[in-house]
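Protocol step 4 of 6: record predicted structures for both targets in the notebook before any analysis. Target 1:
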Amino acid sequence: MSRIVNILVDGYNVINQWDFLKKLKEESLEDARDKLVEMLQEYAVFKDCSIYVVFDAHLVSGSVEKHERVGKINVIYTKEGETADCFIERTVPNLIKMGTVAVVTSDYLEQRIALQMGGIRITPREFLLEIESIKKGIREKAKTSYSQQKTTLEDFISRDILEKLEKMRRNL
């Protein structure tokens, strides 16, 4: 499989599929959105891809389509009357010209449409497992790298100078 260049995420769909975000949403929808964007940011940097997270605003009277850039993440709020699904369906054909496109949603119909347009479908559960796997790998690599990077003075000076320093330290 070729490297995924662009990922479209149905924001509220994912929030409602990931238990910890669903619980956070009950306290604050804004916090749940922010946490999702934060997690996607880490993923985008590690995978070197662009991510478009789309939030429905189709029931918000008078809303217009709004785009924000948060690091490598494109955050889109749809306009009144447009669902995230509609935005994703409209966007996949344009992004596919630039390379492989994945759509993250649990909506079966949306998955089928993405596949028919030449994209890849990823369920929210699969995506969360991949994010967690990447985070674990980064932590392990950082832990290993740190212990391997430990250096001492002995690594940089000759044995005879080291002996002279030791004598000075002991006042000999």
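Target 2:
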Amino acid sequence: MLHTRKIIAVALAAALLAPAAKAEIAFDVIGGSEISFEGLVQADGNWFSNDIVDQNGQALNGKDTEFELRRAELVFKGKGPGAINWVVGHDLKAKKWLDVNAKYTIGGNSNNYVQIGQYKQPHSLEELTSTKHNDFIAKASITNGMTVARRLGVAAGTGDQNWSLMGSWFTRELTRNGNHGVGYGVRGTFAPINAGGNVLHLGLSYISRDTDGDALRMRVRPMADLATAYLVDTGNVTNVDSAATTGLEAMYISGPFKLQGEYMQTKVSGVTSARDFDTDGGYVSALWNVTGEKFGYKGGTPSLGLPDSPAAGMFQIGLRYDTINLNDGSFAGTPPKGTGVLGGEQDTWTLGANWYWRSNFKFALNYNKVTSSKFRTNVGNVNDDPSSITARAQIYW
């Protein structure tokens, strides 16, 4: 608790010191590099309404509520020397490295570059969008369950304001005992409409990673990040050789309104064909800046500026439908026995509101209604339909 209080105190001081029109704190120019300091601190509260499974059961505290520091990210960035930009970030809460890389810009165009180190892989519109501007508190099921996030590797990208292409070869995470496995990924985007505050974005990505015969487990929480239960879960599937995910994405922006959706399919290849299985899922969401601020678009992802009126802040409301299917098998008999992978299906409606106040604060409130179904040996499919209210207070600079 004392460690958490110190982090929040440092975050408040940094946020209050940050200039109103500029998020990061400028340090100095050292060795030809303009160094700045950024941070993100998020504190969450979850209130659970259970159906069958206790969403907070593994906390072993007998409560249907949970409060926790979610993220405490500190990031140093450098511009220069020359065409080189670098970043070193660490999450003190999760005790893991974030972006730690250097990027060389080619021809003075930020869209043309070569990158080395740890970075987000070219996959998923939601994953590549800045965490501080998440539309909803919990990311979509496919984003949490199917994407490959930050890994060590080498990447190259090119594009302009209407299209982008990025390719990457990667290995393990920089953090000790993190995710591992060699892989590669590619993402391409195209915006046939990008003018006058209106954007139509289309994207396609493919990412493949080796698991070297290890076990693979796919599972997602019931749209509450502090929940300890997973209503859909494949369990450890052994003797898996590789996993490949194809992603389709689309987004439409019209001034203060944003509509976006993604669909993903993951094909898992086993050491033998008997271990093969497929999963899929997707989401569609709508977000409206009630106070009128317009969304931006750069590098194949949406962007969000400061409130037009810092004292009043920027207010958003949003709605999302989310689905994931971790079943690729069947069951029969009395009592029923299953074959293949029967991880379950989960659908969720999320209603959310966000308030960005001044330059450094955000408050979010979500209501999540989940419907799920999962096979249990000797029982059959069991439906579990809980709900939750989640809240977040955020400081960033």
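Step 5 preliminary note on target 2. The chain has one domain: 2-25+41-75+137-146+187-396. The mean pLDDT is 92.
Proceed to step 6 after PI sign-off.
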